[in-house]
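Catalogue entry: protein

Sequence with per-residue tokens
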Amino acid sequence: MALKARALYNFQSENKEEISIQENEELVIFSENSLDGWLQGKNSRGETGLFPASYVEILRSRSSSSYTDYSNSPAGSPGHDSSFYVHPPNTSISNQGSFEDDDDDDWDDWDDGCTVVEEPSSGPGTNGHPSPHLQYPAVYPSQNAGYRPKPALERQDSISSSKRGSVVGRNLNRFSCFVRSGVEAFILGDVPLMSKIAEAYYIEMGSKGPQWRANPHPFICSVEDPTKQTKFKGIKSYISYKLTPSNITTPVYRRYKHFDWLYNRLLHKFTVISVPHLPEKQATGRFEEDFIEKRKRRLILWMDHMTSHPVLSQYEGFQHFLTCRDDKQSLQIPTEHQDLQDVEDRVDSFKAFSKKMDDSVLQLTNVASELVRKHLGGFRKEFQKLGNAFQAISHSFQMDPPYSSDALNNAISHTGKTYETVGEMFAEQPKNDLFLMLDTLSLYQGLLSNFPDIIHLQKGAFAKVKESQRMSDEGKMDQDEADGIRKRCRVVGFSLQAEMNHFHERRMADFKRMMQSYLKQQIIFYQRVSQQLERTLLMYDNL
């Protein structure tokens, strides 16, 4: 039965089996059962084909008892904020849409629920949780499997009601029916005591505000040698990639489903960090050379971003992915005071910047994609037409032998062949410059799409602080409890600002490299074109 759906993101088709969809576009889904992470349906323009299941949500009436949202990203899909989700014991995160998710390996059994956040000052906890180190799972909301956050209670409107029984209303999520434990539980102090800390992350004050402390053991990781492998006696095929971290000598081999496993852990763990999106999946042509090469380039960019991030690069799940090491981690923030209003103003400024950058990145992506299309088609055809026209002139000159000049005829004919060669050079050039530019732009489209909901979490935290202070003033909440909410909001604020600063640092480095590479390749390209034309010109000097 056909179902109505709404597109959460833009998707550009890359082959004839797929169709393009636009954000907020109304779609018709032929069946809600996805095939390898893809749905079949029709867009608003009447085109029928495949598109990623994670890019849409099924629209249902309020009376419906179930709700389907295929999106995996908490930063990109309202109503499905998996950053608030606490998995029950022995339950793994589902790799929706993975092409190779039928393996019985240990990739779904990793327990990353031990990370906590620390504020470097001691004091009593809130809501009855004594805490000598004020341990907060802020950017890491997953909690011990056996822990169940206490349910949200209705706020007491009577002053005579129990003060300890009053709680701030839970409504950080845009759809309250999908409230999940995580940042909300952290802000309100509904967190359990954690186990002993073995490793810590730090936020420190820099010249531009809070920033992540650099990884004390920086490293890089190469992504090489995509190789087609088979299993089940050749029934199933997949591509494996060779990963070699610079801090160890032994490479590991990972499939795309393993990257997908890590990506789901990152989304679940880090709610105020913009986790880079993985390269898109493709329903058909997964073993074609061009697709494998494109995915490899984008996995290299993805890995470079991961290893350069001071927090993500130290995350135990990432280390497990690369080396299978397992260490407990925490986050410690600076002691410097920051006015919450100043933080909110800075977040608002970054919100406006990220929206503008997102629009400009999309604009440049569209222009570069159109230029690629012209290189592969229009430019090559035009130069071929010009070359054919020159050769036609040369052939016509040979029709009257008494006045024919072989040297001139050959020079004109060679000119035609030169322009045909130039046309082929134009067709090959995007592999050297525009494809690399589009890879970087694709990475940043994913990063920027994460920030609206990350900022939404911060806005919700500010609202909780204001609400808790009002309730304290009205005698409905202890001041100590309100102060605890404010302190935990500081942790979220410091984390978001540190992530914003890291984003700016990476943005400057990445776009500098992208522009330098593009201009250098353009110079080399036009020098090669010039050399071809100069050699052809010399043929006329000898006539």
About this structure: Helices lie at 183-188, 256-269, 289-308, 316-323, 340-397, 406-428, 434-473, 479-541.
